[in-house]
């Protein structure tokens, strides 16, 4: 994948070095193989489990929408010691503000209306981005959503256990891939046969629409001027129309009124959600 470095004139300050990134003590999140740190005006995602696809997707969105997202300043890779995968770096804008997750319960109806109206406009813009004839990630790359995986030749020589992550030519192919994963996870569980017979009838076979695919309050930053900024685009791509609504409710903790406001932001697909919720919970149980 081609690296990217923004023109120096567009940078708020010189980019931090890999050494400075590694030594940063301002750690926002940390998981095995990935780390998110803040250095001055930059936020850096890096690690061998970080995908540069997220950065390329964000650059694509800057060209095709006015949805407020962090500016991407650099995308590159370096060798990883004792690991066969490279360490990938996404250096982006640090967006000052508060996450919607942390402030939601302090907001009144007027503030919630204002924020969800903004978000509704953003997702309307995303849906208007012309699709490119496939279900997948920008650049006709495979999905990196947790519902998909693909074993390479170093992990398995059994072609029966290779699961496609796309890109897919149709919604039906995508659903078949999810159900194939279900079958591989629970080969003795005959319920998969029921899903294979009926789930495709529920979802239909619509055109792909561009989706964030991880719409949660933690991925919305409210700036001091009141503008909502969408972050965390690693799962974004072209999905079925119902997907955004279904996964947003799947991730909803149902402990407050957020689920009601999701429907102000996204078109509703309650029947699809029930199926997706059931299958996802069984897969991840």
Task: Write up this protein.
The chain is an alpha+beta fold. The protein folds into two domains: 4-93, Phosphorylase Kinase, domain 1 (2-Layer Sandwich), CATH 3.30.200; 95-285, Aminoglycoside 3'-phosphotransferase, Chain: A, domain 2 (Alpha-Beta Complex), CATH 3.90.1200. Helix content is 35%, strand content 16%. The chain is built from nine helices and eleven strands. The chain has helices at 18-23, 53-64, 100-103, 109-128, 171-185, 191-203, 243-250, 258-265, 270-283; strands at 4-5, 27-31, 34-39, 42-47, 72-78, 87-93, 98-99, 209-211, 220-222, 228-230, 237-239. The strands form three sheets. A six-stranded antiparallel sheet has the order 1-5-6-4-3-2, with helices on one face.
Key terms for this structure?
single chain, 285 residues, alpha+beta, Phosphorylase Kinase, domain 1, Aminoglycoside 3'-phosphotransferase, Chain: A, domain 2, 2 domains, 6-stranded antiparallel β-sheet, 3-stranded antiparallel β-sheet, 9 helices, 16% strand, globular
Sequence-ordered SSE layout with sheet pairings:
Elements: E1 4-5, H1 18-23, E2 27-31, E3 34-39, E4 42-47, H2 53-64, E5 72-78, E6 87-93, E7 98-99, H3 100-103, H4 109-128, H5 171-185, H6 191-203, E8 209-211, E9 220-222, E10 228-230, E11 237-239, H7 243-250, H8 258-265, H9 270-283
Antiparallel strand pairs: 1-5, 2-3, 3-4, 4-6, 5-6, 7-9, 8-11, 9-10
Helix pairs in contact: 4-8, 5-6, 6-9, 7-9
């Amino acid at each position: 994948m081609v690296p990217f470095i923004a023109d120096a004139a567009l940078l708020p300050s010189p980019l931090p070095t890999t050494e400075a990134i590694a030594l940063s003590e301002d750690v926002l999140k940390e998981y095995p193989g990935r780390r998110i740190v803040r250095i001055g005006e930059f936020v850096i995602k890096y690690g061998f489990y970080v995908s540069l696809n997220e950065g390329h997707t964000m650059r694509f969105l800057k060209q095709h929408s006015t949805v407020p997202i962090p500016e991407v300043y650099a995308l590159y890779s370096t060798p990883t010691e004792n690991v066969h995968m490279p360490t990938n770096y996404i250096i982006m804008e640090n967006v000052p503000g508060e996450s919607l997750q942390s402030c939601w319960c302090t907001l009144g109806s007027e503030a919630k209306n204002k924020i969800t109206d903004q978000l509704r406009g953003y997702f309307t813009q995303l849906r208007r981005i012309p699709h490119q004839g496939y279900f997948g990630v920008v650049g006709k790359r495979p999905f990196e959503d947790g519902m998909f995986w693909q074993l390479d030749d170093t992990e398995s020589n059994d072609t029966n256990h290779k699961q496609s992550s796309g890109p897919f030519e149709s919604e039906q192919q995508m659903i078949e891939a999810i159900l194939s994963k279900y079958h591989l996870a629970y080969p003795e569980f005959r319920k998969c046969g029921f899903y294979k017979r009926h789930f495709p009838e529920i979802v239909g076979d619509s055109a792909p629409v561009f989706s964030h695919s991880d719409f949660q309050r933690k991925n919305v930053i409210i700036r001091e001027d009141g503008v909502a900024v969408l972050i965390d685009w690693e799962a974004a791509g072209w999905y079925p129309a119902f997907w955004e609504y279904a996964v947003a409710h799947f991730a909803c903790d149902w402990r407050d009124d957020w689920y009601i406001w999701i429907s102000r932001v996204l078109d509703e697909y309650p029947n699809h959600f029930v199926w997706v919720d059931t299958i996802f919970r069984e897969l991840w149980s």
